[in-house]
Amino acid sequence: MLTLRPYQHAAIDAIYGYFEDRKGNPLIVIPTAGGKSLVMASFIEGVLKAWPDQRILVVTHVRELIAQNHAELIGLWPDAPAGIYSAGLGRRDLGARVLFAGIQSIHKRAYDVQKCDLVLIDEAHLIPSSSNTMYRRFLDDLTRINPKLKVIGFTATPYRLDSGMLHEGKGALFTDIAFEVSVRELIDAGYLAPLTSKAAETRLSVAGVATRGGEFVAKDLQAAVDLPEMTDAAIDEVVALGRDQRSWLAFCAGVEHATHVAEAIRKRGFSAATIFGDTPKAERDRIIASFKRGEIRALASMGVLTTGFNAPAVDLIAMLRPTKSTGLYVQMAGRGTRLAPGKSDCLVLDFAGNVARHGPIDAVKPKRPGEGDGDAPVKECPDCQSLLPTAVRVCPDCGHAFPPTKVEIETQASTLEILTSGKPQWLEVDRVSYRPHQKPNGLPSLRVDYQCGMIRHSEWVCFEHTGYARQKAIAWWQRRASGQQVPTSVADAFERAWQLIVPSEIAVRPKGRFIEIVRYRFNRCQSTSSAPSAGGSRAGSAGSIRTTALPIRGGTNPVGGSAAVSVSNSSKGEAA
Fold first, then answer.
1. For the Helicase ATP-binding domain, which residue ranges apply (predicted)?
2. I want to staple 33 with a disulfide (CB 3.0 to 4.6 A). Which of 19, 338, 360, 530 is the partner?
């Protein structure tokens, strides 16, 4: 029996919530290995059991994903009225109520498909931005047949190299992100395997490599990095650092480069194979099956294995392909996040400078078209080669102390490798303040400020949002006001903020340019307080409570005032 995880339930709720009050084509963003196929399958089952006359089309252009998505639905709902339309899979079940199709096979068959109510597009980031494409022409034809057609995109990376975010810009197919969960959240919850990285001594140079369409020119890139001495040095490092890793995946810059990489691995006594875009289907399936069984230690690829490739045992990724594409970088790293028996993490060896170019995969900020190519602000620890934020003063992995610099000192430090560190820093909380916050053109939220000595950290609790954000707000409130009704509005939450116990400590870590709050500790003796008298204060196990007049930054107070409830913490605790 397949069971949905909380964030998967929230993703489905977000789809329904979106169409209750909005029109458009929403995106659902779930990281690689986060179970997009199960979300789609459960959503389809729910729709058809509630509205049996609906016609649903699931489209992608990766053969493996067509079969995988179909199998997921049948596994969840064995009697599903589902079929496949794909030349590569040898099936043309055009009349199925739920049709899993390859865009290359079906893009000219809209009038044979006839009326369709829902189109789910998997790997939506692969849709070209141009309006004159197979996808766009096919969707235009379907919309002419049914003007009420709804299109929903699913992706782990909601951006493209040539056009930026998928829901922004003139002519964008998608209109909103209806739901998003980060890879960091799923790793923290134990749903994905963590990634670790070490800076490699071997560095592939892209000096002089031309750029076209925002990406390195493929021919020039292969010529620059496919050098015998560089390949030998890189594979020596892979063997030295990955000897205890069971399943290696190398992303290369060209067919010849991948061939040379595999040869270098075999010369060092390890089995290796290559896969390319033109590898015959039967041969490709045989190689991948052998790799998954552990009969082949390493796969070297070019142009494939970044989408629709499911090999959970992968525990070493060698990035030998420099890329300016944030999406490609994240997709490559994501091949190592699946859970597998005996696998604790996945080691990423970046010979291509991609981590420095893009930053940690859970904190990337894709450049807009036309923006510069500046690298993310990271530095290398000279003792253990971990990649860290430039503001870090002491390496959290080996304890190396960096000399002081003249730049402004950041308030917190933790590792920034291929993934932002899972080692947060705990801070004592002296005071907590609550205030309504109104984001321009957005729903209001409750801003919570934690004063920790001279430093303040903030979070925003979204009581009026839907889906996952609302679920997080419910859990946040219930931990602080056990047994009391959860507010449905920010105004209600603000009025009742005096009821909340406050944490004795918070755990923080960097997230891109910002600091996020990831955990809390509460004193076991704390309980919710009684309401204070107007203008006064009440002493209790949660500390004294007072109301102060403070200006609100960033917008107008939606509850009609300029007050903030401020709670000082008079007791520290050890409770988790």
1. 17-158
2. 338
Model pLDDT for residues 60-104, shown as the tens digit of each residue: 988 889 999 999 999 999 999 999 999 989 999 999 999 999 999
Last-in-domain residue among 339, 364, 389: 389
The residue among 558, 554, 535 whose CA lies nearest residue 545 is 535
Percent of the chain with pLDDT over 70: 79
- Tokens 């002493």, residue located: 539
Distance between first and last Cα of the chain: 33
Q: Which of 299, 386, 309, 314 is closest to 345 using CA atoms? A: 314
58 and 128: one domain? yes
HSE at residue 43, side-chain half, CA atoms within 13 A, is 26
Q: Which residues of 494-510 are buried (b: 16+ CB within 10 A; e: fewer)?
A: bebbbbbbbbbbbbbbb
Residue 170 belongs to domain spanning = 6-181
Q: What angle do CA 209, 308, 196 make, to 5 degrees?
A: 65
pTM greater than the 0.90 cutoff = no
User: What is the total count of domains within the chain?
Assistant: 3
Helix%, strand%, coil% for the chain, nearest 5: 30, 25, 50
Q: Which one-letter amino acid corresponds to residue 27?
A: L
Structure tokens at 63: 């053969």
pLDDT value for 201: 82
- In a domain? residue 483: yes
**What single-letter DSSP state applies at residue 497?**
G
User: Are 498 and 531 in contact, with CB atoms under 8 Å apart?
Assistant: yes
Same domain, 155 and 208: no
Report how far residue 459's alpha carbon sits from residue 509's, in angstroms, rounded to the nearest whole number.
13
Distance CA 38, CA 562 (A): 45
Are residues 439 and 550 located together in one domain of the fold? Answer: yes
How do strand 98-102 and strand 56-60 relate by DSSP bridges? Answer: parallel
